[in-house]
Amino acid sequence: MAKAATSKKSTAPKRSAEGKPTADEAEAAVRTLLRWAGDDPDREGLVDTPSRVVRSYSELFSGYEVDPRAYLKRVFEEVGGYDELIVLRNIRVVSFCEHHMLPVTGYAHVGYLPSKRVVGISKLARVVNGFSRRLQIQEKLTADIAKAIDEILKPRGVGVVIQAEHACMTLRGVNTPEASLSTSHLIGAVRTDPKTREEFLRMTNGH
Questions:
Q1: Is 17's pLDDT higher than 70?
Q2: Catalytic residue among 27, 109, 166, 199
Q3: Percent of residues, the chain, with pLDDT higher than 90
Q4: Which fold has domain 69-204?
Q5: pTM listed for this prediction
Q6: Residue 178 catalytic?
Q7: Burial degree of 6 (CB within 10 A; 0-12, 13-18, 19+)
Q8: 8 pLDDT tier (thresholds 50, 70, 90)
Q9: Of the residues 25, 99, 139, 151, which is catalytic?
Q10: In the annotation, is 168 catalytic?
């Protein structure tokens, strides 16, 4: 039987930081997993899989390469006296469960009550993306996003709600398709003021 063509060289960055595997080492690990699963990594359909996996993981785990808080450092202070809630809904969340390395997908709703400055709305989405693209649990992700906005913007209040489906329980284990987890983290007036809290939760529920 003719042997499959040699795998193409990965275009993923060669990370040389001390203690961090290179792309070549990561590809070798994928080949080991393919053999462990019972398949032949040298067959035609799988020969390029290791390099593809490493390239996709470089994107899916890109949150390790950025500081999400940095996105919030360019602010606008000319807000015309605006001091009501700012809420950005339905920010797509793509993350991975740190226990099983299976996808966590859903949506984040982020809001804050500005004091003297606001940030571009795209930056809120980038903060969510930056924290999401890491291995973690949803509870910590929710808190990390809220705390970053609170620490950098110093608003009067912050609220973050995430609703997501965890493949570790919908595809395996208890096998409960369409089950989703909701988490929230409220800070300042969004937590302590009943009217503000109610307004935020109403806005994030889409009513």
A1: no
A2: 166
A3: 79
A4: GTP Cyclohydrolase I, domain 2 (3.30.1130)
A5: 0.86
A6: no
A7: exposed
A8: very low
A9: 99
A10: yes
> What is the Cα–Cα distance from 20 to 25, expressed in whole angstroms?
10
Residue 153: other Cβ atoms inside 10 A: 23
Known catalytic membership, residue 98: yes
**Residue 6 binned pLDDT confidence (cut-offs 50, 70, 90):** very low
Domain boundaries 23-60, corresponding CATH code: 1.10.286.10
Q: How far is CA 138 from the centre of its chain?
A: 9
| Residue 80 pLDDT grade (very low, low, confident, very high; cuts 50, 70, 90) | confident
207 is known as an active-site residue: no
Is 99 in the active site? yes
Q: Is 166 a catalytic site residue? A: yes
Q: Is 185 a residue of the active site?
A: no
Enumerate the domain spans of the chain. 23-60, 69-204
Q: Which position among 109, 138, 163, 165 bears the catalytic label?
A: 138
- Give the pLDDT band of residue 205 (cuts 50, 70, 90): confident
- Catalytic residue, candidates 25, 44, 59, 98: 98
pLDDT value of position 77: 86
H-type alpha helices, 46-193: 49-60, 121-132, 138-153, 167-170, 189-192
